[in-house]
């Protein structure tokens, strides 16, 4: 069973300040997950495809954060965020995103 509806409802239930904090922590965590794509000790990329996917997820999360800060966020954006972060089909990236979501959630 997918956890996306549960996580979406959890996110929707947060007050505005908690949403801002969660999304900011999530965005920060996603940048850390992106480091998984680097070749250690160099400027080279080991997994550019994964980094591109992470960048697209980051774009969505930051877009949601911006909408929330401008009081323009609607409930459907939270489903979109949970879906793009938690519904990744590639196993390694799925694990990274799930961990990032859980860590960000746990820091509230």
Strand content: under 5%
Structural class: mainly alpha
* Low-confidence sequence ranges: none
H/I helix tally: 5
Mean of the pLDDT scores? 94
Summary of the model, kept short:
The chain has 108 residues and is mainly α. The protein has helices spanning 4-13, 16-34, 48-69, 75-86, 91-106. The protein has one domain (4-106).
Can you characterise this structure?
The protein has 108 residues and is an all-alpha fold. The chain has one domain (4-106). Helix content is 73%, strand content 0%. The chain has helices spanning 4-13, 16-34, 48-69, 75-86, 91-106. Helix 1 (4-13) packs across helix 4 (75-86). The radius of gyration is 14 Å and the shape is globular. The model has no long low-confidence stretch (mean pLDDT 94).
Task: Using brief descriptors, characterize the structure shown.
mainly alpha; 5 helices; 108 residues
Layout of secondary structure:
Blueprint: H1 4-13, H2 16-34, H3 48-69, H4 75-86, H5 91-106
Helix pairs in contact: 1-4, 2-3, 2-5, 3-4
């Amino acid at each position: 069973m997918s956890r996306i509806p549960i996580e979406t409802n959890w996110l929707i239930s947060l007050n505005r300040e908690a949403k801002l904090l969660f999304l900011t922590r999530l965005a920060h965590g996603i940048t850390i997950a992106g480091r998984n794509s680097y070749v250690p000790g160099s400027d080279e990329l080991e997994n550019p495809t994964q980094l591109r996917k992470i960048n697209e997820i980051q774009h969505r999360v930051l877009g949601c954060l911006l909408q929330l800060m401008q009081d323009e966020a609607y409930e459907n954006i939270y489903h979109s965020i949970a879906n793009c972060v938690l519904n990744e089909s590639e196993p390694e990236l799925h694990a990274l995103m799930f961990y990032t979501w859980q860590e960000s959630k746990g820091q509230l």
